[in-house]
Amino acid sequence: MTNEALQETITALIPDTQFETGAEWLTITTDAVAIKPLLTALRQTAGLDFDYLFCLSGVDWKTHFNIVYHLSSTTQRHTVVVKAKVNRDNPEIDTVSDIWRTAEFHELEAYDLFGIIFTGHPGLRRLFLTDDWKGWPLRKDYEDPINMIKL
Amino acid sequence: MFEEVGTTTEGDLVINVGPQHPATHGVLHLVLTLNGETIKNVEPHLGYIHRSIEKMSESLTYRQFIYVTSRMDYLSSHINNHACALTVEKGLQIEVPARAQVIRVLMDELTRLASHQLWWGAMAMDVGALTPFFHAFREREAINEIMEETCGARLTMNYICPGGVMIDLHPNFQRKVKEFITLFKSKIDEYDEMVTGNIIFQNRMKGIGLLSKEDAISYGVSGPAARGSGVSCDIRKLYPYEIYGSLNFEEILETGGDCFARYLVRFKEMRQSLSIIEQLIDNIPEGDFQAKTKAVLKLPKGEFYSRVETARGELGVYLISEGGTTPYRVKYRSPGFSNLSALNHMSKGYKLGDLVAIMGTLDLVIPDIDR
User: Fold this and answer.
1) Would you call B47 and A129 a contact, using CB atoms and an 8 Å cutoff?
2) Domains along chain A?
3) What phi and psi, each to the nearest 5 degrees, are found at residue B254?
4) ipTM > 0.95?
5) Model confidence over B262-279: pLDDT tens digits?
6) Domain ranges of chain B
7) B-chain residues near A132 (CB < 8 A)
8) What is the full DSSP assignment across B15-58?
9) CATH hierarchy code of domain B2-370
10) pTM, rounded to two decimals
11) From the candidates A21, A27, A55, which should be mutated to test the interface with B, based on the most B CB atoms within 10 A?
């Protein structure tokens, strides 16, 4: 499906969806509360079939976080990017690990490095860092005088 | 740490595999829950070689951050560099000269071949056959020598840069690659004879570590591991970059979904890589090996994503630029990380000894997972 056709189909499904166009892939912007119904619809609607979550990244924009989902379909061969805005003071978002199993691992990474809490995740824990590590390294305001070398 | 396992019942045994264990090929730490010899749960604990490459990249310039990626998946360092260079070129809209494109693809395929050779030797060693390891390393040495002559390094090449490649090919390159093609063509049949048909090897591989097509997609498995389950996911075919669109090669698919299917995919891919190298080695166009670029690169504000096929699967580079000389955020979608997420699902119900075979066919490289 082309980006325009995708946009039409998704708008028909969820009327007031916000889009960003102009990039290579169609981008949907939303907030943390609306993420679960949106992604469930993207996964389950026939014709969309976004069955492959190939990248899940956290981004710190200083005022808020973004969780970016890169989704594509192995049958329809189209791709969409979903950006969910997460509150910085109360960084919580629903897990999608029940929709795509790979998210379980990717969400652990985002929790470990950004401190974003995925509600409903089966076992949120530190993945790379030690259990007693303080702070969230990929946040922009993270300071570590020993391990960080600034150029 | 052990409270987390949760599902432990009377009679279960919780053991650690690694971080220092020969079969993990690096510092991977798995906490296994066993019932007798049957695996009930596998929980990976990562971070023993975590260097926070993503954070480091935020303070490195667009020329510098590429070199760090050689240290991610060190067996596909060319391809990692390639992915980053493609992202920067996408941002700056640099047209790469034809000669550089061919050199890049040649180097990518030589790297893939060397990586699969090492995997083949190590895989056979994991399941108890020691000899193939020495055979694989003998031929891999030829590739390393070719790399050393042109790039000046054997493992972390840092050869591909934004706009092309760092330096032109060494005068011996074509001759040596042709010699290697002749040598390897006879050796690969020997490899096949030595291991593939061996009944002990087949018994260790067939019907082990089953991964269905649906699960492979849901777990985000990519590369040869997914193609062993019949998922068509070769980025070189689906979203061709550089000159891959005009090359004649097959995407190898197997439908077994077990360890043997994944073994066959990688083995056959070696022949495909060899065929790509053969197609290109006599057709390297003359011209520049690098496009003219500014000394200091500044990407426009925006987001760029590029995908390439490494020896292990799909590598994605997600780069966010705020218009400065350093990236605002870089995320590497490394193939090993997603492939590892399927390990628990794939090894449940099999025996402890099978875990080694399953990890072998996933071809895990730990720095690629930890980053």
Assistant:
1) yes
2) 3-119 (3.30.460.80)
3) -125, 155
4) no
5) 999 999 999 999 999 998
6) 2-370
7) none
8) EEE-SSBGGGTBS-EEEEEEETTEEEEEEEE--TT---HHHHHT
9) 1.10.645.10
10) 0.87
11) A55
